[in-house]
Amino acid sequence: MSVIRGARERARVEVTAAIKEEARRQLAAEGAVRLSLRAVARELGMVSSALYRYFPSRDDLLTALIIDAYDAIGAVAEEALPAAGDAEPVDRWVAVCAAAGEWAVAHPHEYALIYGSPVPGYVAPQATVGPASRVALVLITVVRDAHTAGLLAAPTGRPLSAPVGTDATRLAAELAPELPLPTIAAMVAAWAQLFGLLSFEIFGQFNRVIEARREFFAQSAAAIALQIGLRGPETGPTAEGAAYSR
Question: Is the pLDDT of residue 234 over 70?
């Protein structure tokens, strides 16, 4: 019986993978809005009722593809951090950003699914939140390590307004209680800037503007790291940076 069960489980894994692969092909050709379970089933030679046993609705299939995409970009970011070794904080930050950027450029349609226009009528379930957080959590680790090492200065910019301070307090409690509130707010802005840069590249806004796009992205990521307050030997762990706290 266990042999039969094992064969069935392997078959289910293989069919699930085939369904998602065909769905990704359709995403590339038609976009997420036109993704259809019936079209996927037809291309795979399945009847629709059989496919519904794997994904009861289009939204269930979209959710699986979204989670896969978030997990994929999160995994490359997580792998990039230990690969950076004992590099300075700005270099570690850039290494993580560059890895995420390379994945995005290599998988533009999957990137568009998670960072492009929302799919009308689709509401992402709670199950997507953890995978969506993976890149951000790696970047938080870079900043947290810099703070511990005395290589984090106050971010550039104006003091936090009361409403922004409220948001930063909530986020700090959830993600990094040891980091100063201005740093938390600066990191949210940095996250938006980084993926805004990638979206400009992937969706064509840099056409005939920036040709050295990977180099430009790395340069911009380094500038954003400095805005957050990340420091190294060339900028020095100043007394202000070493003592920086809430």
Answer: no
